Amino acid sequence: MKRLAVFVKERRRDVNLTQEEFAERAGVALTVIRKIEQGKTNLNLDKVNLVLHMFGHELAPVNSKDLIE
Question: Of 5, 32, 44, 52, which one has the fewest beta carbons inside 10 Å?
Fold first, then answer.
């Protein structure tokens, strides 16, 4: 979750948006942005994807078996 937190925070800052402005543009609550940037682990995947969509990315479940191959 730390990598996600750093990614979102850095990209948000790159586009010069406050957390509030970014939340509004992403269509999520301010608390969602704060939780992501704080590295919280109890996040709603749909909300995370709304945020990541702003940067052209998406998270999806991955089978650990697929990572090994």
Answer: 44
